[in-house]
Amino acid sequence: MASYAEQYFEAKKRNEYSKTELSVFEKTLDFSIDPFQRDACSSVEQGRGVLVAAPTGAGKTIVGEFAIHLALKQGRKAFYTTPIKALSNQKYNDLVEVYGSEHIGLLTGDTSINSEAPIVVMTTEVLRNMIYAESTTLNNLGYVVMDEVHYLADRSRGAVWEEIIIHLPEHISVIALSATISNAEEFGAWLDTVRGKTDIIVSEHRPVPLWQHVMVGKSLLDLFDGDTTVQDAAESSEMPEVNPELLRIGRGRPSRARQEKSFSRMGRGKQRHTQEYHRSRERDSGLSAPARGSRVSRPEMIATLDKNGLLPGICFIFSRVGCDAAVAQCIDADVRLTTDAEAQTIRAYVAEATASLDIKDLAVLGFYEWREGLTRGIAAHHAGLLPVFKEVVETLFSEGLVRMVFATETLALGINMPARSVVLEKLTKFNGDTHVDITPGEYTQLTGRAGRRGIDIEGHAVVMWRPGLEPQQVAGLASKRTYPLNSSFKPTYNMSANLLAQFGAERTKKILESSFAQFQADKSVVGIAQRVRKNERTLAGFEEAMTCHLGDFTEYASIRRDLKDLEKNLEKGRNRLRQSQARASLLDLMPGDIIDIPRGRNSGPAVVLARAESFDDPKPSILTMDAHLRRLDSRDLEGPILPISKIKVSKKFTGKTAKDRRDMASRMREALYQGLPAREKSQKRYFTEREDGETARLENLRKQLRQHPCHGCSDREHHARWAERWYKLSRDTDGLRQQIERRTNTISQIFERITALLTAYNYVEVTEQGSRQLTQQGSTLRRIYGDKDLLTALCLADGFLDELDPAATAAAISVMVFEAKRDEQNILRKYPTRELEPALMKVVKHWSKLTDAEKLHRLPQTTTPDFGMVWPIYKWARGQSLASAIDGTDLAAGDFVRWTKQVIDSLDQIAHVSTAEPQLRTQCEAAINLLRRGVIADQI
């Protein structure tokens, strides 16, 4: 029993807590908040920023929702930012249910609802653009919640998160919500540096335990031996033992026992997670033993999960085509996970949600196959789907009507679709360039979807067995917590223009140096500097060991090294010369030339039958003395080869018959016996070694070496070994010093190179006082966002849209935003209008000149303009159907919608450029109106 003092202290704490706004907020919830949530919310109430790093499904968003509660109580604004529109829409709907539509707004690239509301949900880029535009919407802003803040590691968009964190006024509290990261302290330290007092709240506790399995055949085997959850594995200092049954299967040995554990529909519970063998498993559950690592089909996989009570589930496939194919396979196999009543409910919901779609577009949208899968409780989820299709899938899944979703990894990004089980078909994915293994961080993000808080007792992660799968590899992914957050921040043309206009060059450099990228670079410099100091101490010891009483051994070692390097270079030069001359002589050989090959399997006399065809790697056809047809390679030669005799070779000679070849070899022997001379002009003279200067230097070095006092030292070779070690370590240390130089002020150096390029284009000018400022022409860049921001500005200045109608204008802008998944031929055979071809040729011309300038200034090159959306956008703008617009392309309907919305966004940016003429503004607005119809208007 607690003492009176302890009881008094607890009562006092409860009394103090009851007076806080957090206690008021907690009463609105129908559950008790966890300790990490309470700690984070307390920090927010005390006016501090906070970084919350916790597993998927742990309830991080409660902290963001508390910030919203505070903002409304204080009469201030709060912004809730997310990386993707789907998340923004979801959060908007959640908050509207709690606070009402009058208090909540939504801003995405193509949607604006109640933008001046006290609480606004938005995509991250919208807030960045607001900051640069100095929007009045920022007035009275008190809190910014940055959901999925770990997205700042994304190569293409991550910089936006850092821009916001750096540029938001200091009085605004930032609530950063992140998945579990292994360098939360480092990221929090940076936030503390740029934002002021920031508390770091880390929780690695999963509210719903996660168990790991491997599906072998129709059997589910535990990954770890014993009662080990993912959290147990991560917290253990050593990796837990892998299930020996899996190891036997991995080695290709037959299963020794049928060990599958039993599962209840609501989860088995840890108390039932024992090593008891269920020998009657096959009879009771209909499952077969793991037959030497066999794989199962997707319908069989669903059946296995269903029998073990592990649905609803998400199966990650990492391929859009694979997701659609999986649904088709299940339909063909007549998989049905719904009752007739549920199927009817699904049909009614689908009809209501898609009522606005044009019936002519349904077939090309894959509507009927999609609906058939849904009525069976099965669906795909990927970026190629129409947004409304994805939203329907998400809603039906959360309602429990869809029980298996085949998804790409985009589903793992924060969308609220938790499942009882998550299945990974394989542990590799295509990253755009090649197939790579998924990282521990990605594995955790994907499997983190398993286990619904308040519904499931536990979650289950399942890896499908396939040949070559290593159980230890899966165990490593499941048990590691090494996934650091690394900055992808780099200045862009648009960012540089905005910063230069607002702050000037010097202050901009200071701002850029405060980025997380520079923070990490500076931190790495500390470690490198320590290595330099350690090396310097070792070098001093080496110098002492190689000290010679006769003279300066460092100088002697330098002469020795120079001599060795020169001898090596001269030998390489001779070899290159010999090879070059050999290739040149092979190109000079004519049919009928008799040569003497010095080495190789073709050594000896041979007659040339045909000239070499390749200039880079000449290989003339020859006939050897023993009547074999061969190709002569420069590697068979020691230098140039010259003809020694000649015979006549008929153009009709093919050498297909043995008799023809023997006759030709006989004629060759006769010519050599008679001493017939080589053809005229075949005795070409080739340059000999050009080493006069180098030879003199070589002799000079040898002379210096012999005359040096240390040359006569009896311990010379002992000193030389220490000198060689000193030289190698000294060279490595110089490399480390160069790394320090390169990493110090890295970001500001990139900014300097960007401003130098912009100055060359007259977008930046130097004033009489020596400061740099944006020109009127350069101000165009401030409102253009995207990978081709400067290219767009250059083309606008050249009037590439001047002669175009609105439909062609939209088509022309598509080349600035569209990027095909694979490289394709850019230049079109036919253009939609006569005026469009010269307009797009201007784009290519400016892109070519810009990339040359970027090479000169050592900047990343602007990606190639892609013409793949020109025809689809033009057709759509001219009123053609969706089927007609994407006919003959690889575009999925969802991709077409997504890219068209980006074209609309780009047109809107151009229309609002400060230097835009009224006619251009009208032209862009007309193009937007042409695009914003049908399925595009429905998705905006």
Descriptive notes:
There is one protein chain. This protein has 940 residues and is α/β, with parallel strands linked by helices. It has 33 helices and 24 strands. An eight-stranded mixed beta sheet has the order 4-3-5-2-6-7-1-8, sandwiched between helices. It has a seven-stranded mixed beta sheet with strand order 10-9-17-14-11-13-12, sandwiched between helices. It has a five-stranded antiparallel beta sheet with strand order 21-20-19-18-22, covered by helices on one side. A hairpin with a 2-residue loop joins β9 (210-216) and β10 (219-222). It starts with a helix and ends with a helix.
Q: Pairing-aware structural class of the strands and helices? A: alpha/beta
What do the pLDDT scores average to?
A: 84
Spatial arrangement of strands, main beta sheet: 4-3-5-2-6-7-1-8
Q: Give the biggest sheet.
A: 8 strands, mixed
What percent of the residues sit in helical stretches (DSSP H or I)? 40-55%
Which regions have little confidence, pLDDT < 50, spanning 5+ residues?
Answer: 255-293
Beta strand %: 5-15%
Q: In one word, what is the shape? A: globular
- State the end-to-end distance: 62 Å
Contiguous helical run count = 33
What's the total number of strands? Answer: 24
**Rg estimate, integer Å:** 36 Å
